[in-house]
Amino acid sequence: MKKVLEIKNLVKSYGRKDYQTKVLKNINLDIYENDFIAIMGSSGAGKSTLLNMLSTLDKPTYGQIMIDGEDITKVNNKRLSKIRQEKIGFIFQDYNLLDNMTLQDNIALPLSLNGKKSSKIIERTKQIASLFGLNEHLNKYPYQLSGGQKQRGASARALITNPQIIFADEPTGALDSKSSKDLLESLKYANEHGKATILMVTHDAYSASYAKQVYMLSDGEIKCRLNHSGNRQKFYDEILSLLSSMGSDQE
Ligand SMILES: Nc1ncnc2c1ncn2[C@@H]1O[C@H](COP(=O)(O)OP(=O)(O)OP(=O)(O)O)[C@@H](O)[C@H]1O
């Protein structure tokens, strides 16, 4: 299996030189094509910090992050934006759709920015929108959509370029349970039927139970890994019992 992300001795500190807080102490992680990983941990454990570094939005204090064998901590900004455009998709908790564009244009945006031909863009937009059950909403503007539809739109936008890795930070954080389930089913489908590798930060055991592996971040380190054994309900129970044994403040 191809290694898409390799993290070596990753450290992140905040603050001045003489007064530093080490948020991430020593993270080592290999992520392979088609993995679906959930990163959990209590509030302030460093989940978003880790995701921001892996997704090129922030730089580590020490350590290496290799995407496709290329150390993204060492490349210049021009190369970094190319890597973002070509290899990475982002899903944020607050959707980040552009208000003055239709859903169709929002989903198509990464391709329009790449300068692809318009008939190809429309075809691909419809294809990805149908994966997320959005075809009948394509001409609507974000204010005409529900939270769940917006988040599925944001996810379709993240997947439209067929990126190697999707980074999702609390993608179900603002959704009700039905919309969360719809979104997670779509991500699962994209992971199982496409080649999408997904790395999702979540505090929610239900969302995490859709992943293939769950990593627990605690005290700046990955303390524990759980593997999905095939039955989602069983995995959900295992995650809950791990969270309670870790004395976490999760549900
Ligand atoms: N830019 C920053 N400067 C200083 N400290 C920061 C900065 N960003 C994050 N931190 C600190 O790093 C720690 C980890 O924050 P992070 O947002 O990664 O946690 P998290 O696990 O995602 O939490 P939550 O579940 O509450 O979102 C926190 O103590 C936070 O206050």
Task: Spell out the CATH superfamily.
Answer: P-loop containing nucleotide triphosphate hydrolases
Bound molecules: adenosine-5'-triphosphate
First and last CA, distance: 34 Å
CATH architectural arrangement: 3-Layer(aba) Sandwich
**Backbone CA Rg:** 18 Å
Give the number of domains. 1
User: How would you name the oligomeric state of the polypeptide chains in this document?
Assistant: single chain
The number of E-state strands comes to 10
Derived from helix and strand composition plus strand pairing, the structural class reads alpha/beta
Instruction: Please name the CATH topology.
Output: Rossmann fold
Identify the overall geometry: globular
> What composes the largest sheet?
6 strands, mixed
What percentage of residues falls in helices of 4 or more residues?
25-40%
Protein name: Putative ABC transport system ATP-binding protein
Pfam family, one: ABC_tran
Family: Belongs to the ABC transporter superfamily.
GO molecular function: ATP binding; ATP hydrolysis activity; transmembrane transporter activity
